[in-house]
Backbone:
């Protein structure tokens, strides 16, 4: 039985064990993968091949990953870019996104989270390229990514900025289990040093607004985290 390809991904990192590990994980998920060990090689491969997404390290031996991304964008390449790097300072994240990156993830990383991030980026970029809807939908829950409006069962739901970020993370990764640490990193930032119990607090806030309809969609997966799924 052949695997149905979900897309073509280029993995760019000068550490061979990273490219091998990520490529193998993505192949098991149904993606076709290629690898590059430096920025110049990556630019050449993107110019000669049609990729859906590039996983890009920032600290490459010849050209910084952020510059590779800028060169891709200035050259008219609209391929999605996900930075995967050991640089975890807020300014590095901002620099990567300003360079044209679609997402930024730090090492060490979870392969499960990486795959979820890739799928979320590809959903967004493919929808945009097809002129499709900017709305994320799960059952009767609708999240508009352009206007940040939310509806459940056709009724509008008013959410705070933090609640919106949390719900966006959950609906972008519907049916997947997200750990407390993953939620903290995505919603509150990589350098959050407050009380980690804030996750439970905001899950509770969100449930009161989103799960006032049946069936409840925000599920606690005991010992693992939270997931947007049917009971």
Residues:
């Amino acid at each position: 039985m052949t695997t149905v390809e979900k897309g073509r991904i280029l993995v760019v990192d000068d550490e061979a064990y990273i490219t091998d590990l990520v490529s193998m994980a993505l192949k098991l998920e149904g993606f076709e993968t290629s690898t590059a060990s430096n920025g110049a090689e990556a630019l050449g491969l993107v110019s000669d091949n049609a990729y859906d997404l590039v996983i890009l390290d920032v600290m490459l031996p010849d050209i910084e990953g952020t510059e590779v991304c800028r060169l891709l964008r200035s050259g008219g390449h609209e391929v999605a870019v996900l930075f995967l790097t050991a640089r975890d300072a807020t300014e590095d994240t901002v620099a990567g996104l300003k360079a044209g990156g679609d997402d930024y993830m730090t090492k060490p990383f979870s392969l499960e989270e990486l795959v979820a991030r890739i799928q979320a980026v590809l959903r967004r970029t493919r929808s945009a390229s097809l002129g499709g809807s900017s709305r994320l939908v799960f059952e009767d829950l609708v999240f508009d990514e352009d206007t940040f409006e939310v509806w459940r069962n056709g009724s509008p739901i008013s959410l705070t900025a933090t609640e919106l970020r949390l719900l966006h993370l959950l609906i972008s990764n519907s049916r997947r289990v997200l750990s407390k640490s993953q939620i903290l990193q995505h919603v509150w930032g990589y350098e959050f040093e407050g009380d980690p119990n804030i996750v439970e607090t905001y899950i509770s806030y969100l449930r009161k607004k989103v799960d006032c309809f049946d069936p409840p969609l925000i599920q606690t997966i005991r010992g693992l985290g939270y997931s947007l799924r049917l009971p």
